[in-house]
Design goal:
single chain; 234 residues; alpha/beta; Rossmann fold; four-stranded parallel sheet
């Protein structure tokens, strides 16, 4: 039997995309209509945002840990979190997690190396791009990176919180991303990290000036591989 995947969710749209990817693509690993057992828990996005907006990353971590403990009690063998921003709370709780956790930035870095990319643009909330979540993991693999400039950070953050997490997908947002990613391409990036789990809902390889690293689906596929491989060894 494949291992049971526990999803620490935060924003609904990104978590739903991750869950849906696991369920639909499970067939590639396990057979028609098959996928591992999956349990998901999320606190209100408002609870997370209250902590994030006051810089209380320990508080963010406690919310994540609360979800992790519920998932462990439900039988999850390992955990994933389809939310890039809140990964910066992991240092406060890593030693207390009841199950191993796949780190989304490590998954993306592994994929980037496998595809031969060397310099990545980073997109996401302003909280993410101001953090070391991706720079730390990319630098450890010898990868270079470029963050959005201040104006881009502000507008991408607005698009994420005013539109994408609310299920609003507009052409103007796509056009803005295209301009920002075009600038990154001109500054030497050879791929871009879609580092907010909602960005893949509007951006992909077909409309991006740069090849995309879809953090949401890459995490889901890494979880599928882990669950299937561990099940095969059992």
């Amino acid at each position: 039997m494949p291992q049971h995947i526990g999803i620490i969710a935060c924003s609904a749209e990104g978590a739903a995309l991750c869950y849906r990817t696991i369920c639909l693509e499970g067939a590639h690993f396990l057979g028609t209509h098959d996928h591992p057992e999956v349990t998901m828990h999320t606190h209100s996005l408002a609870a997370y945002m209250q902590c994030i907006e006051r810089g209380d990353w320990q508080g963010v971590g406690e919310l994540m840990l609360s979800s992790a403990n519920k998932l462990a009690r439900a039988g999850a063998h390992f955990l994933i979190c389809p939310d890039n921003t809140i990964h910066q709370a992991l240092p406060w709780i890593e030693r207390r997690l009841p199950r191993p956790l796949l780190h989304i930035a490590e998954v993306v870095a592994t994929e980037a190396l496998g595809r031969g990319y060397r310099r990545l643009g980073i997109t996401g909330t302003r909280y993410l791009v101001d953090s070391e979540v991706y720079p730390e993991k990319l630098s450890a693999r010898g990868l270079e990176y470029l963050r959005p400039n201040p104006a881009e950070r502000a507008e991408i953050n607005r698009i994420i919180f005013d539109e994408l997490v609310c299920g609003v997908f507009q052409g103007a947002a796509v056009e803005y991303f295209q301009r920002a990613l075009g600038r990154m391409k001109n500054e030497g990036c050879d791929a871009v990290v879609l580092g907010c789990t909602e960005i893949p809902l509007i951006m992909n390889d077909s409309n991006s000036p740069l090849p995309t690293l879809d953090s949401t689906r890459l995490l889901a596929r890494a979880a599928l591989r882990r669950a299937a491989d561990a099940g095969a060894r059992a």
